[in-house]
Write a structure and sequence with these properties.
The chain is mainly α. It contains 3 helices and no strands. The chain has one domain. α1 runs antiparallel to α2 and α2 crosses α3.
């Protein structure tokens, strides 16, 4: 089937990484990393023809990359803005 092709997963990863530029946050970048992980595993031959396993590996890769991205480029100490007065106060 078509999902057994490594190039399909690689194209999906590149498209999701491109769409990340239009979306706020790192949501699609994690999914792109998961799709690229699946592409690499299919290309090497580690991941077989089972679509549920491919989706599971993609989700696990996305979760791991989200956690890594959060740790690497996440909220820094002192980055949060604390408001001490309201704009409507006179």
């Amino acid at each position: 089937m078509i999902w057994q092709q490594a190039w399909l997963w690689a194209v999906l990863g590149v498209v999701l990484a491109g769409l990340e530029m239009l979306a706020p946050g790192f949501y699609l970048l994690g999914l792109a990393c998961g799709a690229l992980i699946v592409a690499a595993l299919v290309w090497v031959g580690v991941l077989g023809a089972s679509l549920p396993w491919m989706v599971f590996v993609m989700a696990a890769g996305a979760l791991a990359s989200w956690l890594a991205l959060r740790r690497w480029v996440g909220v820094r100490a002192g980055q949060a803005k604390l408001w001490d007065r309201d704009i409507n106060d006179n």
